[in-house]
Amino acid sequence: MVSKALLVRRGMQQQNGFAFFLFPVYALKIYVLMHSKKSRSDDSDDKMIELYENLSKKDAELCSLVLDASFIPHRVRRRGRGFSVLVDEHNYEAARETMAAYFAENRMEHIFPAPMEEDAEHAYAGVWMAVFLGAIHIYVANTGYVCDIWDQFGASAARINDGEWFRTVTALMLHADAVHLAGNMAGMAIFGTAVAQVSGWGVGFLLILLAGAGGNFLNAVMMRTGHLSIGASTAVFAAVGILSAHQFVRRRKTGGRKSRALVPVFGGIALLGILGTGERVDLGAHLLGFVAGIGVGVLYGFFGAGRTDERTQWICASAASGIIVFAWVAGYLYG
Q1: By the 8 A CB rule, do 292 and 212 touch?
Q2: What is the pLDDT of residues 204-224, one digit of tens each?
Q3: Which of 81, 115, 149 is the endpoint of a domain?
Q4: Are residues 58 and 39 in the same domain?
Q5: What is the CATH number of the domain that holds 95?
Q6: How many domains is the chain built from?
Q7: Phi, psi of 110 (to 5 degrees)
Q8: Rounded to an integer, what distance in angstroms lies between the CA atom of residue 226 and that of residue 223?
Q9: How far apart are CA 64 and CA 58, in angstroms?
Q10: 37 and 61: one domain?
Q11: Which of 46, 57, 63, 192 could be cross-linked to 188 through a Cys-Cys bond (beta carbons 3.0 to 4.6 Å apart)?
Q12: All residues at 6 or more sequence positions from 210 whose CB lies less than 8 Å from its CB, including other chains
């Protein structure tokens, strides 16, 4: 007669044997369940819209806590180097009003600060742009054909209107003398870095280049003939315009008084008046560079903000570099 203890021992041995053979099945089942859950989560994220973007972890947690207290469904997701808070479209207005009420009650600014790690990473982006301008100036000064280069690559209004659009880019990298260069290097180091902190180093480089070239083009259209300008100051004031437009768009997105959204733009205009006027200064190029920067900044704010991943930065930096190389090659071919 088999003892009860022996039967229990044999039963445990059989269970262990079944568990050994069934382990791959259980593992596969768990993997499928986890994968399907992740897919459902990703699909649900695609159906949600961003309430805030590019937040630090602390600010995202604060926003999540406020929404939780108001029983508003939401998700917090890491996007690039920052965090985004997502809500369903039908909850968007309620979530925005809830956050606005929280800010008003606690006398906080509506706009969350950008993540600190992003600021640190792009702290010298504008400095490198300034160094690039200095290197171009040194090369041109040592060629012995400075005036010829100005004539061949400067922003001649007549020739730009005749189709030589490459001049809108190459003129940004030419300077009359060391004083002219130093002022623009300082401006680029300050405002170029500020743009890079907002958009990332590669995107910022491309935005400033496009806005600066756009300012030169608008200036040429306005002047028509008999006008030649050089210098990166158009790009510097384009950077000021980009920053002003970015703050304008962020304030508009987060609600509040519409009149307050115009404050950054008026601040940029005041800065233009202080720094952009004087003797031997192309006020038209500065003003139109600022205007072009406003346009580019608004487009970026509405359609490109938050896309600060490293891949995007490299793509935009490569595009900007390609534009510069193409412009100089086109200038040599025309010459």
Answers
A1: yes
A2: 999 999 999 999 999 999 887
A3: 115
A4: no
A5: 3.30.70.1530
A6: 3
A7: -65, -30
A8: 8
A9: 10
A10: no
A11: 192
A12: 292, 296
pLDDT tens for each residue of 138-175: 999 998 888 999 999 998 999 999 989 999 999 999 99
Q: Among 59, 83, 115, identify where a domain stops.
A: 115
Instruction: Assess whether pLDDT exceeds 90 at residue 55.
Output: no
Band of pLDDT at residue 109, cut at 50, 70 and 90: low
Residue pair 88/73 in contact by the 8 Å Cβ criterion: yes
Is the pLDDT score of 194 beyond 90? no
For the chain, report the end-to-end CA distance as a whole number of angstroms.
109
SS (H, E, C) the chain: CCCHHHHHHHHHHHHHHHHHHHHHHHHHHHHHHHHHHHHHHHHHHHCEEEEEEEECHHHHHHHHHHHHHCCCCEEEEEECCEEEEEEEHHHHHHHHHHHHHHHHHHCCCCCCCCCHHHHHHCCCHHHHHHHHHHHHHHHHHCCCCHHHHHHHHCEEHHHHHCCCCCHHHHHHHCCCCHHHHHHHHHHHHHHHHHHHHHHCHHHHHHHHHHHHHHHHHHHHHHHCCCCEECCCHHHHHHHHHHHHHHHHHHHHHCCCCHHHHCHHHHHHHHHHHHHCCCCCCCHHHHHHHHHHHHHHHHHHHHHCCCCCCHHHHHHHHHHHHHHHHHHHHHHHHHC
| CA–CA distances in Å: residue 22 to residues 19, 25, 262 | 5, 5, 66
Distance CA 314, CA 320 (A): 10
- Domain range for 65 is 47-115
Tell me the per-residue pLDDT of 18-36, one tens digit each, with 9 for 90 and over.
444 444 544 554 544 454 4
In sequence order, what are the residues at sequence separation of 6 or more whose Cβ sits closer than 8 angstroms to the Cβ of residue 47? 88, 89
What pTM value is reported for the model? 0.64
What is the C-alpha separation between 160 and 148, in angstroms, rounded? 17
| Cα dist from 241 to 131, 194, 218, 293, whole Å | 22, 12, 15, 4
